Amino acid sequence: MGNSALKAHLETAQKTGVFQLTGKGLTEFPEDLQKLASNLRTIDLSNNKIELLPPLIGKFSFLKSLALNNNKLNALPEELCKLKKLETLHLNGNHLRQLPAAFGQLSALKTLSLSGNQLRTVPTQLCGLRHLDVVDLSKNQIQNVPDSVGELQAIELNLNQNQISQISVQISHCPRLKVLRLEENCLELSMLPQSILSDSQISLLAVEGNLFEIKKLRELEGYDKYMERFTATKKKFA
């Protein structure tokens, strides 16, 4: 990737507010981008080999969308949490084990994708985010869903392809949660809180590929109530 090519990309980005440089084998975040810190609304550096996101990321105060899918990130800097306008954050296919402590300060965040990382639990920092719509934590190493999840404001939570064997009953208290995906985990039927069916907002529960037959779900108390929500939602979108 020559300097002239990067320069051309920077000039385009200055006009459009979008900097996209994917699949170019970049090993580091282009420092020259800081010159555009007040212009950029979107940065996409997916499919590169970036190992570190530098603290200067905190300077991009107007950034709305950041994508770093399929890089080699092991950690995220605390400075990332200064991005008060950030609405979309895609970090699929990295090596992240945790999120920065201050992650809950990303107050505008609506969509968060962390599929294919090395998270072992649902990060408690997510519970402070009031505008979250979709959280994708699929293909991680999550083994249990903690009590704090009851505070989560998301509409959709994707936990497919983890190692979940325990779920806190608090998940049924999520005020906006409509879609819960738990496919291909390690759940016994007895470990699925019945309140998800009888006493939650959840209208789509995906649990195929666990340690029970799907038809057994229908025998649980509260299944009728769940089906009422499921059908009502289907009608709304039909």
TrEMBL record:
InterPro entries named in the record: Leu-rich_rpt, Leu-rich_rpt_typical-subtyp, LRR_dom_sf, LRR_domain-containing
Q: Does the keyword Ribosomal protein apply?
A: no
One Pfam family linked to the record: LRR_8
- CC per GO annotation: cytoplasm
Presence of the UniProt keyword Repeat in the record:
yes
Name the domain of life: Eukaryota
Q: Which UniProt keywords apply?
A: Leucine-rich repeat, Repeat
Query: PANTHER family from the xrefs?
Result: LEUCINE-RICH REPEAT-CONTAINING PROTEIN 57, PTHR48051
**Mind telling me what this protein is named?**
Leucine-rich repeat-containing protein 57
Gene name per UniProt: Lrrc57
